[in-house]
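Tokens for chain A. Residues wanted.
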């Protein structure tokens, strides 16, 4: 199989997996997601979110940059492993702290109805502006940076 054929096969498999995930997620009830969020321990939730965001290009670029510089300077595998592991561990700790802070903020604000309504209205308005940008790019109000 050629390299192009392998890329097409891998891309097709990934698209099928994403479609299956969407299919099963769309069939799940809201109670399923509420129970998942309420009963999942915060460290496990942090690991799950970190795994999902692990494809973050900024984080991957920084890890690649750090390890690239380290490999070119020090030809010691143990040092490269320690630096790489330290980077991943620090990212995990910050994700944990970030998720703990957001959880506490969400729990505090979730009980105040007016704030929930304001956030919902703001999200709807921003979503409509983004939909407008899809059809009329850079015309009128825009949220594009």
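Reply:
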């Amino acid at each position: 199989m050629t390299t192009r054929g392998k890329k097409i096969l891998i891309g097709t498999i990934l698209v099928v997996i994403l479609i299956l995930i969407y299919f099963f997620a769309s069939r799940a009830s809201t109670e399923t997601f509420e129970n998942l969020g309420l009963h999942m321990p915060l460290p496990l939730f942090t690991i799950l979110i970190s795994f999902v965001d692990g494809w973050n290009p900024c984080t991957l670029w920084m890890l690649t940059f750090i390890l690239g510089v380290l490999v070119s300077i020090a030809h010691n595998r143990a040092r490269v492993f320690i630096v790489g592991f330290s980077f991943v561990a620090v990212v995990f700790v910050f994700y944990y702290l970030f998720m703990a802070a957001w959880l506490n903020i969400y729990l505090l604000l979730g009980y105040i109805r007016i704030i929930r309504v304001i956030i919902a209205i703001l999200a709807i308005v921003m979503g409509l502006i983004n939909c407008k940008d899809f059809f009329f790019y850079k015309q009128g109000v825009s949220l594009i940076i």
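The CA atoms of residues 66 and 108 lie 38 Å apart. The chain has a mean pLDDT of 79.
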